[in-house]
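Worked example 4.2. Below are the chains of a multi-component assembly; read each line carefully before continuing.
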Amino acid sequence: MSSIQATHSADPLIHIENLCKSYGLQDADGKTITTQVLFDINLTINRGEFVAIMGHSGSGKSTLMNILGCLDTPTSGSYWLSGRNVAALSSNELAHVRNQNIGFVFQGFNLLKRMTALDNVATPLLYAGVNRANSRKQALEFLRRTGLENFAMHQPNQLSGGQQQRVAISRALINHPQLILADEPTGNLDTQTSSEIMLLFEQLNRDQGITIVLVTHEDDIAAHAKRLIRLKDGHIIVDKNNTVATTLHEVT
Amino acid sequence: MNLFAIIGEALRALRQNRLRSGLTMLGMIIGVAAVVLMLSIGQGARTKINETIAAMGSNLFIVVPGATSSGGFSFGSGSVRTLTINDAYAIAELSSISATAPITSGTVQLNYAAKNWSTIITGTTPNYFAVGNWKIESGTVFTESDLRSAARLAVLGSVTAKNLFGDEDPVGKTIRITNRPFMVAGVLMAKGQSLTGRDQDDAVFIPITTSERQITGNQFPGSIRYMLVQGKSADDMDIAEIEITQLLRQRHRIAKGKENDFTVRNLTAIADVATDAAKIMSIVLGAIASVSLLVGGIGIMNIMLVSVTERTREIGIRMAIGANQRAILTQFLLEAMMICIMGGLIGLLLGIGGAWLVSQFADMLIVITLGMIGLAFLFSSAVGIFFGFYPAKKAASLKPVDALRYE
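Applying the procedure described above to all two chains together yields the following structure tokens:
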């Protein structure tokens, strides 16, 4: 299987080779039924890219995101993140990578309940070993950048969806990650708020050079990305530059 | 993540579920309070017994006249006055014995001015006060020469002195014992109850010679009710017992194969039994109380397991933003430990309060030691670690992707 990759630079952030993922499930007789979700994925994403991953449910896009985010490990193949083969890391090392290199933005925001926006944003810093006072100070600065400094002491249930997502984005950014993984970040938001959030992502990508990988099934959301990858049944079937000028490359 | 931050997170989690944390803590509170209360009651009993034993005197034997039988009938212990004052003097000469005190006794009526008091009179030798570990409050005790002259001197127990004289100083005053005048030579310091629960201070002591001739005399001259014998050393009590037995058999001309007409009892051995019984009691009390601590611990484990399941998604989020297994483990373990330690502290205070109430209303000696407090604290932390570890481990070993996906 061959894949066509978009523009290359010499410095890949993500490099995946022959990555496979299968789940083993026990059936009623105790026999293990193996379901393969990803087949021989080869993918390179360079620093500063803004990639949208699309596909129907069951296409394997969430599994791929989980592996990219070091939340899950591949069954076989290698995954190089910033030149490190993270497929071989221990769970503690993966936790460190998640803390330092990756910021997550989820569809359901996934803020910690009954905790202020400020403390939510500060928590990754606590796990990085920063003391509470310093982490709060930095967290406030990040909330200010997303225009939420007046909501610092609000708890998630006192915030609108868009505000919650901006808190989540602040949290994702606080450890200065190279990579932001956004899993349907606008799935729970109205159109107006969605485009605001997408503009924020574009701005982060453009101004700070943060690599953004976005999973979505909405074309107009994917349109904000510069590169589009389409998955189907665990294979990459489309990988193209997401500009009008770029022609679509179908994978055979 | 530093420990203070984790403690902060754990405290926050406990605050978020106040009612549940409180109820879980209640198990711990009751457990620790019960342990502290039971230990203090047990310790109190032991202290009380030890005091009584110390007051009794050391290395003591009590020799009582034994059962005699005549024509096939047994008359029971003490039925015949087979022991005499001279037996006591003879035993005192043995190498393993330091002193003996022969004793006659009876109940008498005492009078002083308009007051009267009925008490137990003990006729004995001056040795008695040393052997029985009595201390003198005021005045003196009678002497060997008083003994020889059968002087009419009386030494009062503190309760007797109080009842006859009130606040007046009894020394030098004349009281009447069964209508015979006696001069009060001294008053003894209070000793409290004996191991059998008799008030030892409700007594009057006079020379045995005086007693025999004038108060408790009977048809057997020189006979005594019992004698106290003090061994020289705690290590030679067995030898002393054999020597006493041999000597008495010889003096009483008891043929080989015939039973003794006296009984030698080692009071120290009896005291040991009492000490052991008290020790066993405090162990049993502590063990019973520990069961409630155990139940409290299981309650904590139960709640922590529920909490881990409930907060699976939270655990997933924390892992996604960089919590490693140790951070998650520490957080949940600390939550369990905090419940235990806070519960332990409250329980400790309640236990001490309860012990104080018991001592006030049940008139029991309650002893709380620093060791007990330390033990309760240590125990509650240990329960927290022991019962908190499994749920915490369960939380920490969740896979991030599974925890995040949990609904």
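Take a moment to check your reading of the output against the notes. Chain A touches chain B at residues 66, 69, 71-72, 91-92, 95-96, 98-100, 104, 106, 110-115, 123-124, 126-129, 131-132, 171, 175 (CB under 8 Å). Strands of chain A lie at 12-26, 32-46, 50-55, 76-81, 84-85, 102-105, 179-183, 211-215, 227-232, 235-241.
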